[in-house]
Amino acid sequence: TGPITVITPVGQATSASQFMRQIGGAVGAAVAGAIFTAALSAAFVANMPASGALPKGAVPSGQSHLSSKGLSEMRAEIESGFDQKAASIEKLFALRGSEAQSPEARASLASLVNDLSLPAEYRFRLAAGTPAMQIDSGFLSLGDAIEKAVDSGDARAVAALLASPQAVSSFSAEQKAQVVGLVHTPPAVRAQALAGMRVGLSHAADAAVPAANAASLTPIRESLAKAKKEVADQVVGGTRASFSDAIHHVWIASIVIMILMFLFTLLVPNLILRSKDEDAIQKT
Is the dihedral angle over the CA atoms 237, 239, 242, 243 positive or is it negative? Predict the structure, then answer.
């Protein structure tokens, strides 16, 4: 015995075929889109750098952003983000006096200390402030301590303070002797001399800041330049690899579906198709 042969009108077979093609096209496109989206999302997680490696605002996440920009634009945007970060760091390092103590400067410093794209060593150094902030604070504290010791009449305490590294680089031997001698001077003279001492300490801080800033900024600039290239290469390469991986998954899924559909068609019996006129003649 062979397979049962069913005689079917051509019109019914044609309409059924067209209907299945439309349904298959719609469902197939939806399935392929879902596979592509899921594979692309997983590939981005695997191929893209960690979020902490990117400067804030360099590359917003999301496929809509990626689809609206080319690879060269993405690279330019990432590099621009690192350049802006370098400029903001240099601007922060240049702040002095009341500007350095402003809420805006402190917020910028806190953001820099918590920035994971900078090496931990530099973030640790900046926890106490920029070099200028630390130098200004150190000289201000030294001036306060010397003034307090002079007003208390404690010559030994004054001499001990003048032996500190900051004082050694700021006062000559003659100036140190003059400051110690302020303990025995009238209050009016003492106040005027201490005010002059404050000016001298301020000048000493001004002289120390440029070298300290340069020593700190040079490795930070080098680190940011290296990170700019590495992150840009990783993002551009990761984008290429992510789309390639997603398309590969779609092709694999399509091949599997086609194989399954081919096996399914082997189970469909062969049908004899005839026209409407032939069907009417067969009934008579």
Answer: negative
Query: Dihedral of CA 97/141/166/219: which sign?
Result: negative
Q: What is the dihedral of CA 220, 221, 225, 230, to 10 degrees?
A: 0
How long a stretch of residues is the chain?
A: 284
Sign of torsion over alpha carbons 214, 219, 220, 225: positive
| Contact indicator for 67, 212 with CB cutoff of 8 Å | no
The gap from C-alpha 17 to its chain's centroid, in whole angstroms, comes to: 54
Q: Which long-range contacts (CB under 8 A, 24 or more apart) does 13-20 make?
A: 13/271, 13/273
Alpha carbon distance 85, 91 (integer Å): 10
Query: Does the CA dihedral 166-171-176-179 come out positive or negative?
Result: negative
Q: Is 4 helix (H, G, I), strand (E, B) or coil?
A: coil
Alpha carbons 194 and 202: distance in angstroms, whole number: 12
User: How many whole angstroms separate alpha carbon 254 and alpha carbon 212?
Assistant: 62
**Can you tell me the distance from the alpha carbon of 121 to that of 222, in angstroms, rounded to the nearest whole number?**
14
Nearest-5° Cα angle at 197, 196 to 199: 65
DSSP 20-52: HHHHHHHHHHHHHHHHHHHHHHHHHHHHSPPGG
**Measured distance CA(34)–CA(45) in Å, rounded:** 17
| Residues 165/170/174/179 CA torsion (nearest 10 deg) | -80
- Residue range 199-219: average pLDDT? 90
Residue 57's pLDDT is 47
What's the pLDDT tens digit per position in 41-82? Answer: 888 888 877 655 555 545 444 444 544 567 888 888 888 888
